[in-house]
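go over this record:
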Amino acid sequence: MHTADQPAVCQGRVAVISRWLWRALGMTAVAIGALGTVVPLLPTTPFLLVAAWAFARGSERWRLWLLNHPRFGPAIRSWQTQRAIPRKVKWIGIASVIASLLIAIWMQLPPAALTLQVIALVCVSIFLLTRPDSR
């Protein structure tokens, strides 16, 4: 026999599990983003934006920690408030795009793969260059 409280208990459990999954996604994204500060060609900011998004759903405390972090916070706040990217990050991104393309050429990828990569990298470059510089 079911009691009237069972649906509420189930919803409560789902909410707890959901919060933990969002936190796990956020922590994974922070870890990958942190690796991006030392591993060439691994971006940092996109993973930190994913982390902030996930933490907003899983933990306000962790979201605030990330937004107030001395190294990671400024870029996230800049994106969230102005949709801006710091100039230095833009140039690192463009340098990464060029390096990726040069590696693909050096590896002698098939022309179809190079064409697709060029299209994707041009789109990324246009996106980066058309965002305002953060203040």
Q: What stands out?
A: DSSP finds six helices and no strands in the chain. The chain has a mean pLDDT of 87.
